Structure formats: structure tokens, C-alpha cells
Amino acid sequence: MIEGANRLYTVEEYYFSKKMREVNLLIASGKPIINLGIGSPDLRPPQKVISALTESLNDAKAHKYQSYQGLPDLRETMADFYKDHFQVSLSPKTEILPLIGSKEGIMHISMAFLNVGDAVLVPNPGYPTYIAVTKLLGAIPIYYNLIEDHNWLPDIMALERSDLSKVKLMWINYPHMPTGAHADYKFLGELVEFAKRNKILLVNDNPYSFILNDAPKSLLKVNGAKEVCLELNSLSKSFNMAGWRVGMVLGKSEYISNILKVKSNMDSGMFYGIQKGAIEALKCTQLWYLSLNSVYEQRRSLVWKLATELNCTYDKKSSGMFVWARLPEFIKSEEFTELLLKNHHIFIAPGHIFGSNGEGYVRFSLCAPTEDIEEAIARIR
Ligand SMILES: Cc1ncc(COP(=O)(O)O)c(C=O)c1O
């Protein structure tokens, strides 16, 4: 028996990877499970995206290795996308790197900037991958608190008073997953100043900016942000292309070339047809976002009803493809989600899996048809 590497002892299998095995067993045994647990878009990408992929398959270079930096046309379209939606100017040659999803980018950025023993500020609650990747690389995650009373924003003064001597990187993610909270430009500006004062690379993971959000924002729009900031973005949620694996990292050329050094040694360029489809997606007009969001709006108002039936409370001003809801007092989030699964066959995510500050909350996904959500409400009633 060959032992696994020591780094494996620093992480556990992802909650959803384990839990879905159990949920799938329940489905196989005939239980009518309603899945409101996972944020995997069930809607189709724009038709022109699918056509661009299929039509590209007979191009002469369709099946060759592709450039590590992606097609120039893809990078140019990404630059136009950032200019149009966020009024941020980026050089398509040096300041944009297409990625195989933004999750990949979390590992690549960490590998490009962290040494063993460096500390990383990670949100609690937050996307569990930031912590897992930090630990896998022998760096030290330091949770920073996000709480409802502070609108799920970091307390910069409290951070400033803490020992930051080893901190090299800080993850933020606005609109925030799982809470759906926003950070305005004033607050993002304060964070950039904090990062500059403390020589910290501030990275905004920004995959939810176009879902149920009236005012998409980019950290890179903040004055002087490029000095200390990077941003990740993704086509997974904005264009229902989660399985395609297309993301991007954006920022100053020196930072991007560090990341390219890692990426070009780990994977190869993205499949040509996927890049062709991604180009079409990024060129979508406002009409696409309006139609996508009208579906999510309908679903969200039903999920609000479901949450109310379950005696939960929620913030109607939040963004993203989840409803984050506070539970009645005295019940733990896992106890609540297990009861819901066992008694009503409804699967939702317990808040504690996103960090200790998620205890007392649950997360409902909007990636299920209205009929499923209506059925869930009927089961509770
Ligand atoms: C906060 C956050 N960041 C990144 C990702 C990964 O997205 P991608 O599909 O681009 O890898 C997710 C996916 O659920 C997410 O919730």
C-alpha cells in the first residue's frame, strides 16, 4: 500500500461530494428528492454559444493544442466585457488570462504567490475552496469574521489590530457566497487601502455579479486597485456554462505572468470550441441578463415563501443564485437540513459548511425549476 501525501491530511473530501453520494442513494431507492442544495445552473446557455461550439468542430485547428493564454479573440472579448460592464480597461495581451473555471484560478493564484508558512485571510462564512487550497499548499488560513450585523463585510479596524505580519493574500467574494451580500465601491476602496498598507494581495472572486444584481461591480474599478489586486470571474453562473469550465483572472501584467508560469506548467490551453462558445457568451446583450434574471426572480420569490413556511428569515436585498436564511433559534443548521431531508425529501445546504459563522443559517439554491420549489412548499404545508 502506497501512502498518500501528507498534504491530504490537511483537507477533507468536499461536503457536497460526500453528501451527494447519500442523496443519490436516496434517489436510487425511489425517494422523490428535491435538490435545492447545489449551485449548478440547470438552465441552458444562450443558443448562439452552443452553435458556436458545434460549428467550430470542423475548423482546421479545432482539435490541436491551444495557446496557454487562450485565443487572442477570447482575451479581446474578455477585455471588452470588462470595459462594457465594469468600465475597467485591461490589456488583452498582458492583463487577462483565461482559465478552466475560476476554481482552478484559486489554486493557480495561491501557487503563484504563497510560500509555505505564509498566512491567508479567508472569509467565515465563505467558499470552502479558499481554505482547502491554502492548506494543501502548506500556507496558514486565518478566518476573518463576516456577521449579519456588519452586513457580512469584514471589520477592517479589527483586522488592522490583528497580527498581519505573515499575511500575504486575502480572499474576498462580493457579491458574497453564501450570504448574497454586497460591498459598495466605498468599502472596496477601504479594502484596497488596507491591502496597500499591509502589503497584501487582495483577490476578489466575482462569479455572481450578474445574478439578481442591479449594479455589477469589479474590484479593479477602484482607483489604484491594480497595484495590489486581482479579480477572478467566471462564465459558469452568468451564462449557465458551469460544465464548460471557463473563467478568467484579471489584473496587472506582472501578476498575470506569475500565474501563467504556474498554469502553463500544469495544464494546456482550453479546447478551441469552448473558447469559441465563450466568445459568443461574453458578447451577449442586456437581453440575455434580463431573461436569465427573470427566471431567477420567479424562483427566488418561491424560495422566499418556502423559507417563510420553515420559519426562517432572509434579506430581500441580497444577490446571487442562493437564498441565505436565518433559522429559528435553538436549532443547529445540520439538524435542520437533516430533518428536512429525512421528513420531506428536500435537500438544502447547512450554513456551518461555509464556516462557523454560518451556523444558525441555511442556503437554498435557485438552480431548480419553479415546479420543484412549489412542490417543496406543498410538502411543508
Ligand atoms: C464563490 C465561488 N467561487 C468560485 C466558484 C467556482 O466557479 P467556477 O465554476 O468558475 O470554477 C464557485 C462555485 O460554486 C463559487 O461559489
Key descriptive features of the protein:
381 residues, alpha/beta, 4-stranded antiparallel sheet, 12 helices, 15% strand, binds pyridoxal-5'-phosphate
Write up this protein.
- The protein is α/β, with parallel strands linked by helices and 381 residues long.
- It has 12 helices and 13 strands.
- It has helices spanning 15-28, 47-56, 72-86, 102-113, 129-136, 156-161, 185-197, 253-266, 272-282, 286-309, 333-344, 370-380, and strands at 34-35, 96-99, 119-124, 140-145, 167-172, 201-205, 229-234, 247-251, 313-314, 322-326, 346-347, 349-350, 361-365.
- The strands form 3 sheets. A 7-stranded mixed β-sheet has the order 2-8-7-6-5-3-4, sandwiched between helices. Strands 9-10-13-12 form a 4-stranded antiparallel β-sheet. A two-stranded parallel sheet has the order 1-11.
- Helix 7 (185-197) links the parallel strand 5 and strand 6 (201-205).
- Helix 3 (72-86) runs parallel beside helix 9 (272-282) and helix 4 packs across helix 8.
- The radius of gyration is 21 Å and the shape is globular.
- The N and C termini lie far apart (53 Å).
- Total DSSP helices: 12
Approximate helicity band: 25-40%
Count of β-strands? 13
- How much of the sequence lies in strands comes to 5-15%
Tell me the span between the first and last alpha carbons. Answer: 53 Å
Largest sheet: 7 strands, mixed
The unreliable regions are: none
Name the hetero compounds present: pyridoxal-5'-phosphate
Widest beta sheet: strand line-up? 2-8-7-6-5-3-4
Mean pLDDT: 97
Overall, the morphology is globular
